[in-house]
Amino acid sequence: MTSPRSSLNSEQEAADLNRLIASARDAVAQVIFGQDQVIEESLITLLAGGHALLIGVPGLAKTRLVQTLGTVLGLAEKRVQFTPDLMPADILGSEVMEEAADGRRSFRFIQGPVFSQLLMADEINRASPRTQAALLQAMQEGRVSIAGHYHDLPAPFHVLATQNPLEQEGTYPLPEAQLDRFLMQIDVGYPDWEAEKRMLVSTTGNAEAQPQPVMGPAQLLAAQALIRTLPVGEAVVDAILTLVRAGRHETSPLPEVQRHVAWGPGPRAAQALMLATRARALLDGRLSPSVDDVVALAPPVLRHRMALSYSARADGVSVDHIIARLIGTVA
């Protein structure tokens, strides 16, 4: 049982971290215009200790967002442009032969860009499956294996990958099992009129707003640790399980799911939703998530973890439509 003193300390720690996180969100919003939901979902992903897949057409500031998050959160950030000729060693690193002054030879490991705290994998679907698998293994295990030796990645370690939904010729779509490694799929849309107007004025003058550091890696790790201790009510746990299990045609009470879903979200989806709801609660200054958090985060957590059948495509049914029906089972 938690003592009153430890509970008080936990609440004070949560309040302090919440102020920092709120300041970080405001700092990102000063540079990225009209993408409040994208900023929120990206921060939730990082607070939950996960990775995110950003999908949007060119020119929507996806690269700028990742760079800004790296600066604001104080993370060592690197960017890799994925191309068909990119090899796993270009990301992970490789061993090179060195000869000492006395003639003795030895191998030295040279780290690749994956050894960063925030890695942007730009247009990840343009690299070969072999290269994609190398990165996704590092994402899952937090380490890389080179010549039979393991090398731990920095902590924290996060990947924000991007995909362009246009120009799909010559690309290698991520397999469903690898998509499941991403905590969220964040769809980046166009900003509204007012936001785009502010962006035009702010980014075409002599002085453009630059992101300022607000947090550091230690504070992000502290927030991630705190999030895992936030209590979750039984109603929220039941809502998560109801939502996820209703998305599988084997256990769903919805005829639409049984007819249109080829395969639904697995247990990792429920785990992701649990962590994400806790992170959203802390981001909003609350010490426990609610069912509203589950409803708000269901689309980005589930949309890349479901596949529709041919009949769904023929009937014009989308994944977002199915998720909306799933939300109706708990809302």
Considering the chains and any ligands shown, give keywords for the structure:
2 domains, Helicase, Ruva Protein, domain 3, single chain, globular, two-stranded antiparallel sheet, disordered N terminus, 5-stranded parallel beta sheet, alpha/beta
Structure, described:
- The protein is α/β, with parallel strands linked by helices.
- The protein folds into two domains: 12-196, Rossmann fold, CATH 3.40.50; 230-331, Orthogonal Bundle (Helicase, Ruva Protein, domain 3), CATH 1.10.8.
- Helix content is 47%, strand content 15%.
- It has 14 helices and eleven strands.
- The chain has helices at 4-29, 36-47, 62-72, 88-92, 129-141, 176-179, 193-203, 217-227, 234-246, 255-260, 267-283, 291-302, 310-315, 319-327, and strands spanning 52-55, 77-81, 93-99, 105-111, 118-122, 143-146, 149-152, 158-163, 184-187, 261-263, 307-308.
- The chain has a five-stranded parallel beta sheet with strand order 2-5-8-1-9. A two-stranded antiparallel sheet has the order 3-4.
- A hairpin with a 2-residue loop joins strand 6 (143-146) and strand 7 (149-152).
- Helix 1 (4-29) packs across helix 8 (217-227) and helix 12 runs antiparallel to helix 14.
- The chain is globular, with a radius of gyration of 21 Å.
- The protein starts with a helix and ends with a helix.
- The relative contact order is 0.15.
- The model is unreliable at 1-6 (pLDDT under 50).
